Amino acid sequence: MTATATFRPAPPWHLLGELEHEATQRVASRSLRYLGPNWFAAVMGTGIVANAAATLPLQFPGLRGAATVVWALAALLLVTLSAAWVVHWVRYPEQARSHKDHPVMAHFYGAPPMALVTVGGGTLLLGREVIGLDAALTIDWVLWSLGTALGLLTAVAIPYRMFTYHHIEPDAAFGGWLMPVVPPMVSAALGALLVPYLPEGQLRLTMILLCLAMFGLSLIAALVITTMIWSRLVHRGIPQSGMVPTLWLVLGPLGQSVTAAGLLANAGPSALPDLYAKGLTVFSVIFGVCTWGFAMLWVALATTVTVKTARAGELRFNLTWWGFTFPLGTCITGSTVLCAHTGADLFAVAAVALYVGLVSAWAVVAAKTVRGVLTGPLLRPA
Question: pTM of the full predicted structure?
Fold first, then answer.
């Protein structure tokens, strides 16, 4: 509200609401200038809470209903942010284009495609009980296709710009570098759920082979980047406090690759020759257990670094805190598929324990995000 309006005599009560609404709209409009692709991490983090609950080894009355509500919330958030992002691009095109040139923000272009695919998967897993299977499949196919196309684009475009445009310091590696290359892994995992709904023959075969190719694309790129992050931590120490939550992003490709391997193994018998289907199941267990072990090591390391930073009073809230949610959620879905394939209670216990941690983290981060939006700091320039 301007100074003139502040000292103006009190308006009639019937106009006060309109005046406050107008001021709020002006503030919101200006705030959209600073909207970035990193906001879609909130959709990812919310969606994984629902998706992980849908297949959790421990099911109890009310869990699926609650998960469906969270899925609906993630879907609503996706629609809202997508609309806001369109307005952002229309009103502030220069600001929007500048994100691709920013050495940190550019990597978060991986968040929108993962948000699309995550909500699409939740629609098939949970939403079909609300809107019906046919509608759920249609929505999932649209979101998966769009998210996969955008994810493959970011997996090429963002590294390319790193190689040719940005000047990268030797100690610059951080968890955000994984964001552009992980979307194909998410597409591989949730694409496996769509395989049985395709006609038998070449369509199913093509789909599962594409998912396997995206699995490899993302996995190898993520392993390269994770090695660079480990080297940076060894030689330069832990990052500044604001970037500590990005350490949790390493769990994303680890947990999601275990999930993808397991779900593709489930889809294998309907799309692949028997020999390859059985081999894929064996691979999913051996690869999954080994990768799960390293993921648990990273959980321990990331937790100790986060606790150390928090005890020093340096862990101040920002949007990178959403890194505590989606990556942890992938470890839950990975543990769940390993439990299904091995029958080991170890993975069931791990999935449930990690889910308790996920829900706790999501509740804290979501509450702080809402507060930050209402009070303003999250929609102001850093």
Answer: 0.89
